[in-house]
Amino acid sequence: MNSTDPENPDEEGRTEPKDAETLIEEHEAQLNELLADVEGADAPEAESHLPGLGSGVTRRDVMKAGAAVGVAGGLAGCAGTGAFGNATTDTESSSGDVPDHKVPPGEHDEYYGFWSGGHGGDIRVYGIPSMRQLTRIPVFNREGAKGYGYDDETDEMLEEAGGYTWGDSHHPSLSETDGKYDGEYIFVNDKANGRVARVNLTYFETDAIVDIPNVQSVHGCCIQSPNTEYVFANSEFRTPVPNDGRDVNSPDEYASLFTAIDPDSMDVLWQVEVDGQLDIVDSDKDGRWVLSSSYNDEEGVEVEEMTRDDRDDVKAFDVPAIQELVDAGEYEEVNGVPVIDGTKSSPNNQGDNPIVRYIPTPKSPHCVEVTPDGNYGMVAGKLSPTVSIIDIEKLATADDPADTIVGQPKVGLGPLHTTYDDRGHAYTSLFIDSQVVKWDIEEAVTADKGSEEPILGKIDVHYNPGHIQAVQAMSTEPQGDWLVALNKLSKDRFLPVGPVFPDNDQLIYIGNDKDDETGGMELVADHPVYPEPHDAIFAHKDKIEPARTWDPADYEGEKEFVTEENSRVERVDDSTVEVYASVKRSEYGLRDFTVQEGDEVTLTITNIEGSQDIVHGLAIPEYDVNLALAPQDTRQFTFTADEPGVYWAYCTFFCSALHLEMRSRMIVEPAD
Ligand code: CUK
Ligand code: CUA
């Protein structure tokens, strides 16, 4: 429907497809209509060509929507148009040196970076500043290379968490102790199926997934600072609660829920129903307030309704007050979960101490990120060119929630996400302008709302950044040297690879404060990325202590550690066989094993090697068996031997000069 011209249907009622140019124009017109302006700010003339792309390439080609609105800073290197004029001088200017981001062979990066994989469903681990990919941790996705989702344990975990074949991971959050990353866990949401997973950072492996009742889509996800007492998850899509067929045609009755999860048991503790919608979430640094951004407080079901109003409410949840109500039994139970009424008219929100404060914020904002000192929550305007600064201390005292907004700098078009250095600066991604803007937080609090005074500089990125993240900015220990812009589009920056382009993560050095057009920010590297990470979180290498081999004590009582001596076949009954085998370079504890056609076979395999980096696999062709066994690890695989014959079990990791010879023979004897 959308791609045809409704004016000119042919004789069969079909219409001509619109050409590409028309589609772009329509998209721009739609955006321009929605983009809110800040009073008194003049829009500069839009540039019609982009630098570096050649004269044939127009702004439209890189989807810089908003021609009529103008582009703050212009496009030609963003220098000197005066659109953000009045750039203030930072007095802490340093020498201007940028350290080498290339890490020499054999040396290590200074930081770990954990990227969400988007609808790839995984977490990707990078070294910063080299941007080398170190590994990937499958989370919501099955992954042959790590045998994840194949062995009984991970297969059952995925099945019990709904049995979906994929997930959409957006927001990784590192566990904290005293506001500092403690290197224990990453928690991450699944936007696609309303789940939250926990990744164990000792083994770099997903160890729990909770399928959250009463919600459809979990977008925002964060831990509670400073001590990870809860994990919070926001349902983005409003649905009937419970979504069992009731109220399907009454969108007024749909709801969004704020969910609290116990990080140890991964049980859902309670939920809070709100008016409007919920989106991205971040915790203060004192264990009291949790802020949620929101678009679509209109409670619309179509885009025109969702973007109708000039304001949406940021919701501030008073977590201890909610916990008190739960403890006192003041809730309704839905699908086994205590659900608290946090709507505006709820008795829980009358009087001086509401459990949810609704803070009106312009316009369909995209996120909220709390400053490392815990003083402010920054809400990027998306359709408003501003960031709203919420003073967290005022949440408890302000009579009018609107009074908690203590600053609103005008930063540029399409602000989405904000991150921080260790020197009082904020950095905000500008999706439409394709820039990162650096600004001074305290100056933005003292300046008039809508002022560009706090802007220190802007740097072009390529193109359309979503999240940006600086090193350790989500903890109380920001480092202030590196920042990554996770750009959604790469356009012509890399060799073409067919119609699906890589994203482009760009590394920017932010350690220098300079009085120039970028405020000292310097672009140092482009990095093509498989689609489609949304966010990343970085920790100093000293914060993470991965194991080099498994500790069998960690699975004692659950799985047998199989030695060479006790490798064996045990018949349990007429149709059940247990096979136990060790594995080492270059042999399995059993050179062959025999089962009967129709048997249910459980393999228990232990890698008895003690040396780090010696991983073995066990694959059985035509039986879809795929185990990956790190040193000292034991895995199980259960299957039915329903096809008689000879099957060569082999090792999938090239582990020694006799790797190819490293086999075992499974003989399935035919039933009579
Ligand atoms: S959302 Cu994707 S760019 Cu899921 Cu954090 Cu902003
Ligand atoms: Cu073990 Cu190859």
TrEMBL record:
Enzyme Commission number(s) of this protein: 1.7.2.4
Limits of the Cytochrome oxidase subunit II copper A binding domain: 572-672
InterPro entries, per database record: CcO_II-like_C, Cupredoxin, N2O_reductase_N, NO_Rdtase, Nos_propeller, NOS_propeller_2, NosZ/Cyto_c_oxidase_sub2, TAT_signal
UniProt keywords, alphabetically: Calcium, Copper, Metal-binding, Oxidoreductase, Periplasm, Signal
Biased composition (Polar residues): 343-352
Protein origin, superkingdom: Archaea
One GO cellular component term noted in the UniProt record for this chain: membrane
Catalysis: reaction(s): N2 + 2 Fe(III)-[cytochrome c] + H2O = nitrous oxide + 2 Fe(II)-[cytochrome c] + 2 H(+)
Pathway(s) annotated for this protein in UniProt: Nitrogen metabolism; nitrate reduction (denitrification); dinitrogen from nitrate: step 4/4
Subunit record text: Homodimer.
Stated name of the protein: Nitrous-oxide reductase
